[in-house]
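Hi R.,

Here's the chain you asked about this morning:
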Amino acid sequence: MGLQEKRLAKEIQTEKLPAFEAKIKEIAGYEINVDVDWDTFTAYDSYPLSRLEIVFDDIAGFLKKICSDDIGKEALSESMKTIKLVNMDKTEELKMELTDKVFFLKLQLAGSSFGAYTDSQMASYVEGQL
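And here is the predicted structure, written out as tokens:
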């Protein structure tokens, strides 16, 4: 990790992530911890870090779909306390999993391609688990 990646990671950790967590608390009606595996996002260059805001937007969008009413908010609050973000090397390693109140999102934000889930894909998966 070079200086550029360190600066960008620090900016995300101190400014963008707290603002994002406040936004999703407002959407869901309760606190959801966002756990970013920083080592997997800084192992390449600044590109994966620069794509995190897109992922944040997709997560907010999926939460809006789930939490559109009190039934959805209640079901989610009973099933999800943490969102864990991990950046993978290969697109075939992409995965979503909701287990033990943790929503694991394995993304591929490095290399020549961008592999992540849309808000609709996340909402569909999580609704099926609630």
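One quick note: Residues 3-129 form one domain.

Cheers,
M.
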